[in-house]
Amino acid sequence: MTQTTPFRIDESLREFIELGLAVQIATASNNGSPHVTYGWSPRVPTDGRTVEVFIDKVRSATPLADLKTNKKIAMTVADPISYRSIQLKGTVVGIELDCADDQAWVRNGREGFLVRTSLIGDDPVAIRNLWYDDVVRLTFSVEFAFDQTPGPEAGRPL
Asked: What domains, with CATH codes, occur in the chain?
């Protein structure tokens, strides 16, 4: 996978990413062992070349340890209603442990996810039980983007 210029997220893709969707974050240890955790409330800064996403500090200890030595990250964002899914791959450029100023953003994203999952019949209490209050903000530069929606176009570069 060689790309000469960084991927830039356009307005339409930004709106999808920030909708309040299911988010999975994947990292790998130096020996290549994969680790996955829930992500919450991704947002795209105005540059369109980076993404900020929040992970639970307690649940994500192993992925956070991975990122100290291997900065590679993959984020999948999926709409539980339409099944539209995308994957972004890149390199972590920042880890912020103090996210007090981000709590309203995280709460709004989680509530959006709760609404979408409730529409397909998931129990709101079960969804809320996935949340921890202490989050970490990861910022990563986007190097590759793929359509991951099930079907013949899955895996197509965006």
From this structure: 11-147 (2.30.110.10)
Token digits of residue 74: 């993959």
The answer to whether 31 touches 65, Cβ cutoff 8 Å, is no
CB 90 within 8 A of CB 77: no
Q: Where are the beta strands (DSSP E) in 30-132?
A: 34-43, 50-56, 72-78, 85-96
Cα 145 to chain centroid, rounded: 12
109: left (phi over 0), alpha (psi -120 to 50) or beta: alpha
What is the pTM for the complete model shown?
A: 0.92
pLDDT single digits (tens) 125-158: 999 888 888 999 999 999 999 999 999 999 999 9
Which residues are within 8 A (CB) of 151 and not within 5 positions of it... i.e. 6 or more apart? none
Q: Indicate the length of the chain as a whole number.
A: 158
Answer whether 134's CB lies under 8 Å from 96's CB: no
